[in-house]
Amino acid sequence: MLWYKAWRESQARFLLSALAIAGLCAAFVVFHREGMLSVEDGHLTYIGYIWRITYKTYLRELFAILVLLLGVGGLLRERAYGTAGFTLALPVSRLGLIWARAGVGFLEVAALSFLPALVIPALSPFVHQSYPWTQALQFGALWTVGGALIFTMGFLASVIFASEYSAPVAALLILLLYSVIADLPFLERYPVDIHDIMSGVGMRYFQPNTSLLTGPLPWTALAVILLIVCGLIALAGRITQQQDF
Amino acid sequence: MSYKSIIETHDLTKRYGNFEAVHALNLKIAGPGITGFLGRNGAGKSTTIKMLLDMTHPTAGTGTVLGRSIGDPASNREMRRQVAYVAEDKQLYAYMTVEQLIRFTKSFYTDWRADVERHLLKRYQLPMRRKVKALSKGMRTKLALLLALSRRPALLILDEPSEGLDPVSIEELLQSLVAAAAEGTTVFFSSHQIAEVERIADRVCIVDHGKLAMDLSLDDIRQDYRRITLGFAAQPPSDDFHMQGIEQIRTSGRQVVVLASHNADAIVERARSLEAVSVDVAPISLREVFLDTVKENDALV
Description:
Order of helices and strands of chain B: EEEHEEHEHHHEHEHEEHEEEHEH
Shape of chain A: globular
Largest interface: A-B, 23 and 32 residues
CATH class of the largest domain in chain B: Alpha Beta
Number of domains of chain B: 2
CATH architecture of the largest domain in chain B: 3-Layer(aba) Sandwich
Low-confidence stretches of chain B: none
Shape of chain B: elongated
Helix content of chain A: over 70%
Radius of gyration of chain B: 22 Å
Structural class of chain B: alpha/beta
CATH superfamily of the largest domain in chain B: P-loop containing nucleotide triphosphate hydrolases
Oligomer: heterodimer
Largest sheet of chain B: 6 strands, mixed
Strand content of chain B: 25-35%
Low-confidence stretches of chain A: none
Mean pLDDT of chain B: 90
Number of strands of chain B: 14
Distance between the termini of chain A: 22 Å
């Protein structure tokens, strides 16, 4: 039932995010002619256009902000609403509460990550275009792992900062700081920039000419990111165990 | 299951920076029955309750509830299976309906009593399909009580349960607490409303400035506590009243007011031997005991 509680708490944010992502994907497909004309590169293919507008820029940036906000919540927010006492009086551990919220969050991130993979290939034939399902699903996998890391930044911020506004602002600052550090020249040769991993930019598994994922996905890097995510959630649990409510 | 004591704390202390919310509190609630945890705002009542339930970590000291250590998270979690808690502001998950919240809460307890749930639902007339955010504070309190009492917990802890309620809701609340105690639940509730403590409690623990100032039974107050007002023709004797049963002495001019917890007859006899010209012995209320206690503490701080 802790999972049910976590779901109910994030339900509205998740559904709004899903609506925004699905709506934008549908708009990108339906209005692809106008979209492609607005891009300077006149030789842009439909696949290149979808990659650029969805996986490289606008939608990926929106996705990052949405999953960051999905991570915000938890016992400090409950303390502000006055329900922390009720929750903590239940015969459950604080770690149980943390992992339930993280688990539901990861499932929501995965669902949002694969939403473009459902909408874009499914709608493309209606506008006499096609986008490969395999490509979309592979990007979904990359977004799931990248989204989990970004979600965890919001999650961690929300166990440190209590107020309604400071947690999301802190989460955005953490993401910004991470993005700046990951872009530093001496780090460019390492796969540490989650935005690049999600879009494929500069990665061996991505062909810029065709805008297609060609090589095997970086499973080792993805596994390391997931380990870091688990470590950060465990840290959030440790912090929560020490807190007074 | 019987326990040596339902709640027991030893030098329980909580400091927030330089501020000491609870100072070396030694509390012993034997149960069963109703214990009022009386104190002014900021006396340390809520902090104590939060420490008992592992919501706040003690700075020092130890404690047990139902024989389980409050400082050990696993032990405290097991203890919470038998303890129900109603928080001060009675906030519950606003996004759930009454029905969903009951279903959610019951999933954590194997001893949930469906018959009690049905009985309380009928008695409180709670709208099952209404969202918690649409309930009045009185309704929320009833829902919180239903969630607490549907398990017949060994211990029911309430933090300022009547806060913000109208007189009718307060009456229903007090009746529910008395009924719960009659069915074997030990009730421990914090309050600064002396009248309601006096009305339903068997025992009262007065806490002030984070310390236990008094722990006594209401029957003792009614039967044994007396205010003895003595008048003297000349300056009253200052050091001659150190006797058993004297809790406080206040001297004002030629008048001496003694608060006695017992031994009133002997104190009166002693006063007469010291040539008191007037002696007035009167029963004392919890209000007077409380006010005398906190005034004395203020003088000491």
